[in-house]
Every structure is written in structure tokens, then in C-alpha cells.
Amino acid sequence: MIKVSIVGGTGYTAGELLRILLHHPLVEIESVISTTSVGMPVAEVHRDLLGETNLLFAETFDQPDVIFLCLGHGLSRDFLEKNRLPQGCRIIDLGNDFRNEPVFEGKEFCFGLCELNREMIRKADYIANPGCFATSVMLALLPLAAEDLLRDEIHVHAITGSTGAGKKPGETTHFSYRDNNLSVYKPFKHQHLTEIGNTLKAAGSSQVPQINFVPMRGDFTRGIFASIYTKWHDSMPQMEMIERYKSYYAASPFVFVSEKSISLKEVVNSNKGLLHIEFHNGYIHITSIIDNLVKGASGQAVQNMNLMFGLEETTGLKLKGSAF
Amino acid sequence: MIKVSIVGGTGYTAGELLRILLHHPLVEIESVISTTSVGMPVAEVHRDLLGETNLLFAETFDQPDVIFLCLGHGLSRDFLEKNRLPQGCRIIDLGNDFRNEPVFEGKEFCFGLCELNREMIRKADYIANPGCFATSVMLALLPLAAEDLLRDEIHVHAITGSTGAGKKPGETTHFSYRDNNLSVYKPFKHQHLTEIGNTLKAAGSSQVPQINFVPMRGDFTRGIFASIYTKWHDSMPQMEMIERYKSYYAASPFVFVSEKSISLKEVVNSNKGLLHIEFHNGYIHITSIIDNLVKGASGQAVQNMNLMFGLEETTGLKLKGSAF
Amino acid sequence: MIKVSIVGGTGYTAGELLRILLHHPLVEIESVISTTSVGMPVAEVHRDLLGETNLLFAETFDQPDVIFLCLGHGLSRDFLEKNRLPQGCRIIDLGNDFRNEPVFEGKEFCFGLCELNREMIRKADYIANPGCFATSVMLALLPLAAEDLLRDEIHVHAITGSTGAGKKPGETTHFSYRDNNLSVYKPFKHQHLTEIGNTLKAAGSSQVPQINFVPMRGDFTRGIFASIYTKWHDSMPQMEMIERYKSYYAASPFVFVSEKSISLKEVVNSNKGLLHIEFHNGYIHITSIIDNLVKGASGQAVQNMNLMFGLEETTGLKLKGSAF
Amino acid sequence: MIKVSIVGGTGYTAGELLRILLHHPLVEIESVISTTSVGMPVAEVHRDLLGETNLLFAETFDQPDVIFLCLGHGLSRDFLEKNRLPQGCRIIDLGNDFRNEPVFEGKEFCFGLCELNREMIRKADYIANPGCFATSVMLALLPLAAEDLLRDEIHVHAITGSTGAGKKPGETTHFSYRDNNLSVYKPFKHQHLTEIGNTLKAAGSSQVPQINFVPMRGDFTRGIFASIYTKWHDSMPQMEMIERYKSYYAASPFVFVSEKSISLKEVVNSNKGLLHIEFHNGYIHITSIIDNLVKGASGQAVQNMNLMFGLEETTGLKLKGSAF
Questions:
Q1: D322 touches chain B (CB under 8 A)
Q2: Which residue of A171, A228, B42, C220 has the smallest Cβ count within 10 Å?
Q3: D49, D43 in Cβ contact below 8 A?
Q4: Cβ atoms A61, A5 nearer than 8 A
Q5: What are the pLDDT digits (tens) for D235-278?
Q6: Neighbours of A5 (CB within 10 A)
């Protein structure tokens, strides 16, 4: 059994990790750490876990094999500076601290996008888990990057669920505001753009074109719907490109190309990514959907753990989607 | 023109008052008072009012004819203790301070349920505007109280929209929590029970039976849906009772009895109350719907103002419902 | 491996069965039968199953060990009259055909409420899977029935998600109608009342008091929230009764008593039932929540299958809830 | 009083027209025509109108001054071929029949975008009311077209509420499907593209660049949120352009430029259009919001009527927004 510790245990991504790991056949949760709730039952904060665990929040870990950092962005560095991990303990960071600056105190963090870095991840000790928006966009673009077909600007609109904004209540997550509402935030300057660019290069793109990215807040709780297009000047037949998408993901158990147009709930509560590709007006148009908390965060983190520990990639991740 | 001042101007009920009063043909909004936002444009807080008003939040009022108190419950007393109103200024309090204790510093507050106290309100200077849950339940029961037919326990489930919980964000108004969710709160002990009981007596009930009231939080923004039943032992034919409901509300321009079963959105964004009555299992079952912010708060407050100033009761309140 | 056939394969409960059974470690889906979609990929109808199955809809079954009937209410009889099942094939009917009339052509259908009939189900060949509303109400009342404490009228309001109304679109499932809306239907006369009454008797109640049941349509997709109360005249201390609830369900892996008040999403997308108990006004008040498609239909059907085939009751049913 | 007849009276846009016109001070609704519901009370179909009208659906009109056609797209021609209108009767067509082919049987239909064609509309007898998506996009682009600054491709994502799909229930308007969901439809080829192009030319654009338009289905009932950008190579200071937007709409009582970013509900249930403008990456980015049923359909139709009959443009259209 892999002994796991979860740090930052009261937040959304920690809750989602617990939901997944409590049913993972090869994991034992050693500790769930929260400085604010020490001694409290985990199921009193993550109320849906009633009957599934008797764990209490702990102040610190014991001897985990792997530690998941579910802290706010910027706080993982802090944590690692202040806490000495046991010998050999691996790290999976769900924050953004090491995605673009992967070296810290002699540790090298591997960017944990399994569909791109599967082999590196198998050998890695430290993982920077990708951002949710970034995951949805990268899955849509990796096959084009691999063929070095990203030559022109990329246009992205992506709409995210409210859980992407975290647990702390605020104006734009107030139900009275958000229900039946939509809004744009940080247009053209979202912080995930850097990791998207770096990843496309790593995937084989000789250049990273400008990405015009308009993120939006949707009035749903889970999921990201990304609509992406870029010029298609290639002489390759369109069907051929769709086939290359399928080949690219043939070994990936969670990413699929749909012949039919897709709707967000087809992936909600699963670790899947679905893509749909059409060609119009001289553009290739890709829609890409993931669950922001699963494939966009905690599910992908477990997928990384599975690879790091030599398990089947899908272990504990064959989740029943909610569909409705 | 009636000069109006609104105190507590940044909250939900103040915003809704503004939405109504800005289009009221006989009202001039003299001041919108907020201690926290003095000098700020009103339309920066109530963003939907852009283009409809250039008012700024003020520190205090000038010479209003009527002042609407949109403060948190318990704060109206405070305000009246600390502020001297101009001679002759009327008060409509949307809080619960004077609903059950109507006398304060020599002022007598009339309970502003227009359908019951229309004539008293016409002569009143001070109004305690009814609570939202209370309004939905009282409208359902007034005709039974008037016939003194409330002899047995009354069973009430009533589900409210998120705006009933006010503007301050919190755990149970977080979109991630509330969307697609339901919960019970304060079962059997909601604070509106007292005003409901008092009102039924005032309406003619020789007794006030026990009211078993289960309030619920719904995953919608506006409206209250109340489902109410009590024993029906009367020898009166059922159709006759329905007719008496219709007669009771014949002079009330906002309350109607529907022959068909009703759904909440039939009243949302209007000042209407709709009732539907059936008889089953020896019970009379009444469903009652209002918009909590309109008939349950600010619309009813304007209805009271209209009566107090001798205007047509519906002035400024013929609102387009949203229906969807 | 248990070979399974699913009849009525395009509907909601069939889809949900597939979502569960595709990941069940001891099940092989032999056939998914739909007279209207023969030859079509199952994942074209249940779009979220893309990448999880290559099954096609079939016209008929081969040699299943168990057949799940996911037909409209009243159609299971028809199906069994027209189709000859293989020798020894078990049946789990998700419709209401055999809940109240359990004998059909020499077959005796056991009422599949595992928490009551666990031992009978282990020996049964034919199961009538309980209704969704009925399940939520029965779980709330079984411990009281077992103590023969149901002496007075029972008051029930229960609100259901839209998936309870099935796949065929109609007026009350139109998004424009249902979003942010609420309505009552079939008050005091819902068809599940009979099976609830029968079950309470079977659970030990010497009588079945009148049940005043007001079902409502909620503006969410999954789940039933039931709020139930009945007179509490017992001399038993209240804490003692709560302990008896816990004892009653001690051996049941999916039903739990929550000390804190509950909200619907704590069970959504899981096979759990959660109960919360309070005492007020001389009443015992129980709130009860389930996912109508899982514990209220397909999950419970799999739970029954597990028992019938001697498997651990929770096999394939340790589902990650959606929580949000 | 203007005598009005509404044809196609049971649909969504007819209902919304009724909601507006019943409170219009200078309108008398002469007839609401529906071939399927003759003799039925209008308030039995549009249930929220209970208490507001006793009108019955009629088979035909009498002597209206203006007739609103609320028929399905393509059916207005049919209607006009089969029905002889009274002498002098004006027509406002809410369908798309005459938007791009404005001449029919000697009648010339004026494109009813008030913000562009105000003066022409004042003199027109026949109006082709703009489409909802088109309205949201055109309002965003008119000032650029007027300055002839549309030189490059235009990128548009626009998300619409479910009422845009009409009353007939179907797969993509089923609550179980649509709630918490998102999907793309008709990407790059929506039928409104033609009227957008024609209008931009009429507004002063010397060319109509390619418009890359991705329409989406949102999980809300009312409203369109459009996010639009195009290259900004102009030497004009950015603030200057924003001022030109404000000037362009200075005489338009319903369209406003917001300094702050906007969210959809700021216009829901009103006839307003709000715009917000930013500059990033060499692009001008405009967000544009309207209520699809009001400014995008019936409200705009009444605005046209007001202009045609010499009334104040805002008569009957100072609607209380819902805000929540």
C-alpha cells in the first residue's frame, strides 16, 4: 500500500483527492493535514464522506510515501521550506509553484501532464500537477504541437465551473450572483498561459504563437469547456488530422476524440478529457472538456501517482461519471 | 412627488427598492444612504442600474417624506435612536424590529400586510413590513383565519431562494455548495412564526394552532414556495371555500387564486402572490408563491407606501414578470 | 463473472446501470437491449460512456445470468409475457410492476429494499427494485416501524430531481420551465404510497398510519430530499431513539445517520442514504436523502444483484460522490 | 391607444410581448392569435399572466393598427400570403423572413435595429426585427463599423439562454441534459451571420471581414453573453475609441458602455444592452450582453413600435431588471 499524506486538507482539491483515494485499492491515507482543523473529523468538513472515513485532521505527517500539496498558489514553497519531508517521500504539488519554475532546493519537478510526459513521470519523484484551464487547452493542442502545426495565433474561450475559484466564498461565487450568470475574467492574461506555452514547446512546437485566451466564469460547479481554433493551412486531409489526434491519444486511457459534438457533462465527475474537431473558414476548431477538479486537478494528481509508483495508470480512476 | 430616502442602501432589499422606485412615476429618490460607500455611484454596487441612475451613496438624508429602512434585523432601532428624522417623515421598516413589538419611542408601527390591514395602512405613519416567509404563509391562511377555520395544527414546508439570505457571502450561499442542492434550516423554530401567529389572530382566528414549519434553502435565487395543509372538517362544500378565498382577495390587486396548480416562476419578479387550493385526505392543501424580494420585501414596501400616500395601490408595481 | 443483460437500454436507469456495471469487477455486460436502437453504439446514446464501452444495442439477449428490466412502468409484465428467459436467469425489475403484486406466472418477486430484506434477497431469484421516493421515505421510517412506533399520521414533503421524470422531454422537464422553479405534483396520492405502506408493515409496524405525502419537482437533476415528521409520544429518551436508528443500520454499508443537518449533494452520485433526526414540537423530524438514480434505482439494483449472487454488498458501488 | 394583434400567440416571444404590452400605457391588445388554442384563456398558456389579462386566444384579428408576427422562422411569409391585413396595418416580424430579403409583395421591411436605423424606423410601416445573437454582436460592432475600423477578422463566442431555442421541448433543452452543461452548435455557420454582415455595411463599414462565430448553449434561461475581438491597429488612443462608443450610443436610451467588466444578469429582464471594452494583445475586446427575449426579441419589437407610432422610444420599456 502506498502511504499518502494530504496537506491543505480542508480545500476543494483535497476533498476531491480524498473522494478518489478512499476507494483506491492500493492507497492508505496516512494523514490529512490542516493547521486550522487539527483533531476534527475529516467528514465534518467534507460532509459527503460521512460513512466513508473516520480520519481526523492531523497537524503533521508521519512517514508518507507521497505527499500531495493542496495549498493555495504560492504556498507550496513555503510549506517545503518549513517542513522536512521523510527520506524518499515523493511530492505531487497541485499548486502552481513549480509548473514554470521547476527547480527548488535541489528538487526537480516534472510537469505532470501524463499524456505528454508519461515516461518522465514514471521516473519522477516530484510532480508539478498542471492547472485546470491549462489541461483543457493543452489536451486540445498537443497533437498539433507534435506535428509542429501551430504556426498562427490561437483563439481560446474557456468557461469554468465555480469550484475552480476555491472554497472561500466571495462576490463572484455567491449563488445569488452566479446562478444563471456569466462573466469574463482576466481576458488575454490568465496565469496559465505560461505553462501552456512551455508545454507546447515541450510537445514539439518550434514556436509558441500568441494565444488569445478569454476565460469565463460559468454558472455550473464542475468542468471546463474550451473552444479553440487556429488557422489550418495544412495540405493534410482533415480526416487525416483527426486520425492523428486519435493516434496521439491511443495509449492514453483517459483522452478520447469524439466524432460527434460534445457537451460538458460527458466528462463531469470522471478523469476523462474529450475532444471534438471540426474544420471551418480555414480554421481547425477543437472543443475540449474536462472536469476541473478531476482531470484538471485531483484525478490527474492520482494519475501521476499511479505512474510514479508503477501502477496501472487507471487504478482507482475508473470513476462513474455523473452524466446529469 | 414623494421624496424617498433609502437607508442601508447597498443590500439586496435596497437594490430591489431602487429597481422599483426608479420607475415609480410619483417618487423621487432623494438619498440612498450607506455608511460604507458614501460618495460611490449607486450603480457601481447595484450594477444592473447602470444607465438608470446617477445617484451617489450619501451619508445622511435631507428632507424625505418617507424613509425605508433596509438594515439588518435589529438595526432599525439603533438607527432610529441615533438619527432624528425630519418632522412628518414616515417610516417603512423592512427589518423585523417592529413586527412583533410595534411601539417604539411613541411611534406605533402598523403591520404592513396590505391584504389584511389596507385601511389601517392608509392612515399609518410607521410600517413594519412583513417577513418574506411570513407573507407567503399568511396569504395562504388569511381567508381560513377570517372564517375562524384554523382549529388544528398547520403543516408548512416553505422553500426560499438564496437572496433571502442576504448579500454577505457564506457557506450556504456559496454557488459550489448551493447549486443543485437543498437543505433544511431552523426547522420548527423560524423567527417568522410569531408574526404569523399574531397576524392570524388579527385576521379573525379565535386561536392560533401549532404551526409546524420546516423552512428550506432552495437552489434558486428568487422566490418562496410554501406548501401548507391543515385539517378540513368543515361542512362547507370545498368549492365554496375556494370561492371565499377569491372573495377575500377580490379587492387585492396582487393576490390571485389559480384553478390550476402553480409553479414558482409564475410570480418571480412580480409583486403577485398566487394561491392554489386542493382538498385531500381530510386536509385543505394550499400552495402559495411569492417573490421574496418583491412581494416578500421591497415590492410590498412600495405597496405600503402607495397606500400611505393615497396613491393607487399598484402604482409603479405593474412589473413584467420574468416567467423564465 | 456474472453475465448481465439490460433491457430498455436507452433510458436513464439503464444508462446509470451501465455507468456502474462497466466498472463492476465481477460483471460482464452481455447485452444491452433496445428495440429502437439495435446496432447503434451504446455510447452514442449514453454519450458520457465514450471510451468506456464498445457495446452495441442488441435486439435480444443470449444467456445472461441476470436480466435488469429498465422499462417504463407497466411494461415489465409485457416483456416477460413475450420473452422466454434462459433457464435459471434471475430478474431485477426497476419498474413498479411487481412491487405491490409480487407474484407473476409462478415467479415470486422479493421487494428489493436491501436494508429491510437483506436475507430474503440473498435467496431470491426475482427482485422488484423499490421506487425512488419510496426508498427515501422508507429508509427514514424503517427503524420507527421496527419499534412499532408509527402510531400517528406521517407528514412527508419530498423533492425530486428532474431525472426522476425520465428521458422523454416534456413541459415540466423543459429547462426554460424548470430552471429556478419549483412545483408540486400528485399531492397526497403518489403511486409510491402503497409500497411504502406495505414495507412499513413488513418492517414490523402493527399499523400503517395515513401518510400525507407532497411530492415536489426540484430544479436539480439528481437526488431526493425528503422531510418527514410524525408525533413522538414515546417515553424513550430522544438520544436513545437516534441510537436505535444507528443500530438498525449498523450492518448496512450505505445508510448512515448524520449528527449534523444534511444537504442533498452529500449523497449525489453515490449509493448512500443519509438520515438526520431532530425532535421538535412533540414530533420526530427526519430528513432523508438519496440519489434517485443510484440508491433510488440503478445502484440499489446492483446492490440487490450483489446480494443475490453472494458478493460483498458494496462490490462496484464504492462510488466517488460528486459533492459539488 | 394603439390596437395591437399578436400572431403566434402561444410561443415564447409572444408571451414576452404580452408581458410588456399589458403594461404599456398606450397600447390595447386587440387580439392574440393562435390556431391551436382558439378560445382558451391566454393566461392558461402564459401562466404568469394570471390576474393580468382575461384575453382569450382568437382565430383572427379585427382592425389592429399593428400586427406582431411571432411565428417560427419562415412562417411569416406564409401568414402574409394567406391573410389580408386591414388597410394601413403595420407589421413587425419577429421571425427571420425579411431580415435579409426585405421586399415582399410590394412591402419593404426596414431592419429594426433602432440604434442604427432609428430615423428610418420612424417612417417605416414594416419592420424585420433583428435576431437575438445578431443584436448582441451588432451592438458591439456598430461604432467600429461607423468609423470603418473593421479591417480584420472578427472573433465571436456568444452563449445563449435556453429560451432562445423556443418552447418545443427537445434533447438539448431537457433540464436533465442542460443543467450545469455547455455545448457548441452551428460553429462558424450560424444563420445570423448574414444579417450581421449586411448591418455592418449599412453602418458604414467599407467591408465585412470574415466573422468567426462560435455560438454556445448556456445553462441559463435568459440572455446572451457575447465576447468579441478584432485587431486594433488604429493610431487612435484607446480611451478615445471608448469615448466614441459612448457618443455613438449617447442618443440611445437602452445601450450603455460600462467602465467595469459586466456580467449577464445586469441586463436580464430589461431592454438594455451593455458593452464593456478592453484592449489586449493588439486586439480590441468587447463584451456585449442583452436579454435574448427582451432586447433580443420582444422588447426591441416594442421599441420599434414606439418609434413607428411617434412615441417616446422607452414607453412601456422601463422594466425592472431581475438582477438575481
A1: yes
A2: A171
A3: yes
A4: yes
A5: 899 999 999 999 999 999 999 999 999 999 999 999 999 999 99
A6: 24
Separation of alpha carbons C206 and C203, rounded Å:
9
Q: What is the DSSP string of D148-209?
A: T---S-EEEEEEE-GGGG-SS--GGGBHHHHTT--EE-STT--TTHHHHHHHHHHTT-S---
b/e map D166-178, b = 16+ CB within 10 Å: ebebeebbbbbbb
Residue-wise burial string across A84-120, b where 16 or more C-beta atoms lie within 10 A, e elsewhere: ebeeebbbbbbbbbbbeebebeeeebbbbbbbbbeeb
Closest CA to C154 of C226, C254, C84: C226
Angle A20-A22-A28 (CA atoms, 0-180°, nearest 5)?
120
**Contact D174/C163, CB-based, under 8 Å?**
no
pTM, two decimal places: 0.98
- In angstroms, the CA D102 to CA D125 distance is 12
Subunits with 3+ C-beta pairs closer than 8 A to B = A, C, D
Percentage of chain B beyond pLDDT 90 is 97
Of the candidates C181, C264, C287, which has its C-beta nearest B264's C-beta?
Answer: C181
A258 at interface of C, judged by CB pairs closer than 8 A? yes
Residue in B183, B185, B219 nearest the CB of C219 = B219
pLDDT digits (tens, 9 = 90+) for B61-83: 999 999 999 998 889 999 999 99
Q: Is C180 on the interface with D (CB under 8 A)?
A: yes
Asked whether the predicted pLDDT for residue A269 surpasses 90, the reply is: yes
- In single-letter form, the type of residue at position D142 comes to L
Interface residue C192 vs chain A (CB under 8 A): no
For residues D268 and D321, the answer to whether their CB atoms sit within 8 Å is yes
Whole-angstrom CA distances from A165 to A130, B175, C78 are 16, 10, 51
Q: Is A163 on the interface with C (CB under 8 A)?
A: yes
Which residues of chain B register pLDDT less than 50? none
Cross-sheet strand order for the sheet of A110-111: A57-58, A27-33, A2-7, A66-69, A90-93, A126-128, A110-111
Rounded-to-integer distance, Cα D272 and Cα D291, Å: 8
Q: Which residues are paired to B289 by β-bridges?
A: B225, B274
Q: Give the Cα separation of B191 and B188 in Å (integer).
A: 9
What length is written for chain D? 324
Give strand pairing partners of A225: A159, A289
Residues of chain C neighbouring A317 (CB-CB closer than 8 A): none
C85 exposure class (CB count in 10 Å sphere: 0-12, 13-18, 19+): middle
The sheet carrying C103-104 orders its strands as C57-58, C27-33, C2-7, C66-69, C90-93, C126-128, C107-111, C103-104
Cβ-based neighbours of D242, under 8 Å, separated by 6 or more: D257, D277
Q: Is C121 helix (H, G, I), strand (E, B) or coil?
A: helix
Listed residue (C276, C265, C175, C178) closest to C224, CA to CA: C265
ipTM confidence score? 0.96
* Helix-helix angle C12-21:C299-308, to 10 degrees: 50
pLDDT band at C254 (very low <50, low <70, confident <90, very high): very high
Grid coordinates belonging to B275: 394561491
Q: Which residues of C touch D163 (CB under 8 A)?
A: 176
Which one-letter DSSP state was computed for residue B298? Answer: I
**Is the predicted pLDDT of residue C157 greater than 90, yes or no?**
yes
* CA distance linking residue D227 with residue D113, whole number of Å: 20
Q: Which domains does chain A have, with CATH numbers?
A: 2-130+295-308 (3.40.50.720), 132-292 (3.30.360.10)
The reply to whether residue B222 touches residue D324, judged by beta carbons under 8 angstroms, is yes
Q: pLDDT tens digits, residue range A65-112?
A: 999 999 988 899 999 999 999 999 999 999 999 999 999 999 999 999
For β-strands D154-160 and B183-184, DSSP reports them as unpaired
